[in-house]
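Structure ticket #2291
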Amino acid sequence: MKYREIVYTISGRVATVTLNRPSRLNAWTPHMAEEVRNAMCSAAEDDAVRVIVLTGAGRGFCAGADMDELKNAATQGVPATDREKTAEQLVSVLTGTKTVEELEGKNLDKGRADFRKRYSYLPAIPKPIIAAVNGPAAGLGLIMALYCDLRFASEKARFSTAFSRRGLIAEHGLSWILPRITGLSNALDLLFSARVIDAEEALRMGLVNRVFPEGSFMEGVEAYANELSTLVSPRSLRVIKKQVYDGQFQTLAEASEKADEQLISSIQSQDFKEGVAHFMEKRLPLFTGA
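Resolution: structure written out below.
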């Protein structure tokens, strides 16, 4: 796929997906949604890629849905021919996006339907995804950052749910993912008020994992991503990610039983043997993911 609204690059074992509409603060469009999804699946399928970074070009991460798209929805409404469609079909009419049910690829986790929706597919990508939030992240931009596994912010980053100030609601599973990251009270505050918070407040809430100075932001993100891609077993990362997200729907007993099964498989893996060998031999690991 030839990309128009994103840039997809690979450096070492890290793939970077850059939203590339800087003149509009990388405002989200249906076309961008398709390109991001394609790039994420490409990274999932590429055995050379072990970590994925999602960021924005220029001074913004993503300012949310393109206002031209919202204006059309506000002025034109829902076409009469589409008013009998299901809720999911209706959202597709308004945004032009499709569900992740159309994704194909041997490396995607096809297990939970929860992680096969329009934007909630990122947990099904079996590799760590880091949102490098370099500037404003609002609305859909915030949603995409939340579905990433980790969020690193520049000191210039700003965050807002935005929806209540547009007459909208907590979209695309935001009411599920946000409380799990920030806690219920903080999530309700952000959703009710749609106020803008800075990077330091986001860090205190747990919305982001780390805050870096603007001048060394991407350097800090890349250092962490490179560490994951070289020092950690990709098999372990793949299994742990699935464990954590599946665990959101499991009892403690179920999670423990599944972990016991996974432990047996891990001990039989090549990465386990390499994990012991490189430690005993005091050298850098050569993990293969097997």
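Closing remark: The longest helix spans residues 30-45.
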